[in-house]
Amino acid sequence: xxxxxxxxxxxxxxxxxxxxxxxxxxxxxxxxxxxxxxxxxxxxxxxxxxxxxxxxxxxxxxxxxxxxxxxxxxxxxxxxxxxxxxxxxxxxxxxxxxxxxxxxxxxxxxxxxxxxxxxxxxxxxxxxxxxxxxxxxxxxxxxxxx
Length: 146
Description:
Radius of gyration: 15 Å
Number of domains: 2
CATH class of the largest domain: Alpha Beta
Helix content: 10-25%
Distance between the termini: 37 Å
């Protein structure tokens, strides 16, 4: 991508900047700092899209700002209508084979999938449904590849 409209900036976290695209989508710039490599970041996108297709990422390309390279993704905009209860996130994940390892981090020992950073700004609630919008997936290669 050649241009990001800074006037559409709405939020940022440690790893990404978020821009409103329209009432249906956001654009996210991610510099992959949570990952050892870009390959790990792309695995994260694939896992997110597999497990949470209702908020799937669409990779649009890359954007370079000064000396930082960002992946540019498009994602459905979720307008939260109530605060997310972290106990509901925990119950949902435990019921789907994950173990709570600490705070907002989870591991699925059968799949070899690690899912982290699931606080109430990364999982939104709309009409009583949880929407995972900012996941951080890693894999345990010894288990995942089997």
